[in-house]
From TrEMBL:
PANTHER family hit by this protein: INTEGRAL MEMBRANE PROTEIN (PTHR40078:SF1), INTEGRAL MEMBRANE PROTEIN-RELATED (PTHR40078)
Keyword check for Transmembrane helix: yes
Name of the protein this chain belongs to: Integral membrane protein
Annotated transmembrane regions: 20-37, 57-75, 82-103, 109-133
Source taxonomy: Bacteria, Bacillati, Actinomycetota, Actinomycetes, Kitasatosporales
Top-level taxon of origin: Bacteria
Pfam family, one: DUF6198
Length: 221
């Protein structure tokens, strides 16, 4: 067994689980910090906030409920959830509410602007962590890839359409849209790509075949 815990050089299950749940918890915390910055939310959080305002539930509970509803859309798309998918629905919403309960609203704009920047970077870090753990996509990412396969449209087009519909619906429900929304949309892609590479786990490799009857297996270059 390798030092990393996998029988053929792959990462250990414990490491992957730690990376998954730390990433999801940080993702929820980043959403809460962006909310506290008060300069505009990410599209799905605009929808979460709008639903929360009309139902009287917390924004974290709204996130869980919407995530569960999105999972139902996987059924006709023939998507299969994994541990990471279900954990995504629950952990992010719980972490979001927990962070809001301990982080106060900053009154100064000079505090809110750096808080916004920090929250978006933290979101990218969290994205790199939990996606690299390879326990299955989140419900929203799975909806995107499922629609991509069923419609034949590009991932970029499908994602853009989903985000526009979600943002417009959330805004109509009273969710917060502002400069932070635009900043998130422009920055999250490049930042997430960077941290996905930073936190990528080594792939598990197949064991070398046994040499028959004393023959030497040549080295592969």
């Amino acid at each position: 067994m390798s030092a990393s815990g996998g029988p053929s050089g792959g990462p250990s299950l414990a490491r992957r689980l730690l990376q998954l749940y730390v990433g999801l918890a940080l993702y929820g915390a980043s959403a809460a910090l962006q909310l506290r910055a008060g300069l505009g939310l990410a599209p799905w959080d605009v929808l979460n906030q709008g639903v929360a305002r009309h139902t009287g539930i917390s924004i974290g509970a709204a996130s869980i409920a919407i995530g569960a509803l999105v999972l139902l859309l996987w059924i006709p798309l023939r998507q299969r959830p994994g541990l990471g998918t279900v954990s995504n629905v629950l952990v992010i919403g719980l972490a979001l509410d927990a962070t809001l309960s301990v982080v106060p609203d900053p009154r100064s704009l000079w505090l809110r602007i750096p808080l916004l920047g920090f929250s978006v970077v933290l979101c990218a870090v969290a994205t790199g962590l939990y996606i690299s753990a390879r326990f299955g996509p989140g419900p929203r990412d799975g909806l995107m890839t499922g629609l991509h396969r069923r419609t034949g449209r590009s991932v970029r087009l499908v994602r853009t359409c989903i985000e526009v519909v979600v943002l417009a619906t959330g805004f109509a429900l009273g969710g917060s849209v502002g400069a932070g929304t635009v900043f998130y949309a422009l920055a999250i892609g490049p930042l997430s790509q960077f941290f996905l590479r930073r936190f990528a786990l080594p792939e598990r490799t197949a064991p070398a075949p046994a040499a028959p009857s004393g023959e030497k297996v040549p080295d592969l270059v």
